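All the exercises in this workshop are built on plain-text protein records. Sequence and backbone structure share a record, each on its own labelled line. The structure tokens are whole numbers drawn from a learned vocabulary of backbone shapes. The record below serves as our worked example for the rest of this section.
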Amino acid sequence: MNVAELRQMILGCLAVNGESPITGNELAALAALSEDDFDSIQDRKIFNTVLSLRHANEHYSLNSLATSAKASFEYVATIASFACHEGSLMELVRQLRVQTRVNKLTKALMQAPGQIESLVTLKEKEEFIDQFVEKLNKESHASIRTANGAALGEALDSLLNEKNLIDSHDSLLNHLLKGGFRKPGINILAGQSGTGKTTIGARILHRVAMKSFYNSAFFSLEMTLTDIAHMLMAEITGKSRATINSLPVAEKRTLIEYAQNALKNANTLRVVENKAMTIEFIEAKCRSLHCDSPLDVVFMDFFTAMQSNKKFNGETEKYNYIMSKIGSIASDLNVSVMLLAQLNRTNQQSKDFRPTMHQLKGTSAIENFADLILFAHRPGQFKDSIDDKWLELIVAKNRYGELGSIFYESIGGTIYDTAQDRAKRALFPDDYEEEIHEVYKGY
């Protein structure tokens, strides 16, 4: 099946399921999909309508779906005719992701369509991708680069690294990271309270685990499943936190239950919540989960909340031991670890209030082991002259890529992408042309 057929089948399944109670399989599929997975404006409207109706726990017929989506009944009925009852909806979504990768590979290699069309099963397609990447690892593709130009060379380089990269689904962040988070690797996301680090972490967690099907584990020492559902609710439902908070209590409760069920049914995300977890327990659990289904990403919060079964002579020794254990998890299992951390408040004494690495709690241990350190910073938190909506993600350490900053708008507790040039002019109106242009040129 090609991408167009898979899209039709997925949308068809969503259309015909409306009169039945929502299942765990459908919940997981809706959490994994977004309107960007569909090409036409009409299909996107139908998908968004299904999403809204399911969030509200409402049943719908083909006729009511057509009315709500402002589409003709004939069009919705045609879409419904593509519904496939063989296999699960999540399997179709997974096939869509794999087929998209196959298309990317085909385009990069400029291969004849027949070679791809001969691959029938999903397993054959996945094996084709793995075999080709393995072949590229063994053979030089310099001649292909020379013959077809730098663009194809870059595409092949991307495919070479694909098995050891975790796509962040943020083009600007991927640019600085040279493709994505590394496997194995230790990534730190830190910030003061209220700067947006948890919101950024939720965005990454949702995009990596629930939309891109990277096998992930989330170890939470501070949040319950309900707290995690609250954290991810805006990402899962597509509604801003401000909108969710303004809803009547009954509707808000329905959305929370929806998010909790989506979490429970996410096949690629295992949540382990226990405030008493030690680093030894986390390591053992990671190895156990990895045996069941190889992990790609491990999320942990918070670094300073972690304890150990051992006794230490001071915090420095404890943090070094914990970071060494996290390093073992990353290297032994070939996973990318995303670790949330907190900052000391010493940056409030600095001139521009920007976070620095020496403010990390457990600084020496983190600096020694971390491959990537990201800071969430809200300039408006410290300067009244700056709009509080601006959020800056600072890449302060990066072993495999570039340093720099990415700017977002945080409105109603939800992060939105924004024009970088517009953000820089708003944040640095006086020296934008002279200094900031030099710091950020090329981004």
The chain has three domains: 3-86, 91-164, 167-440.
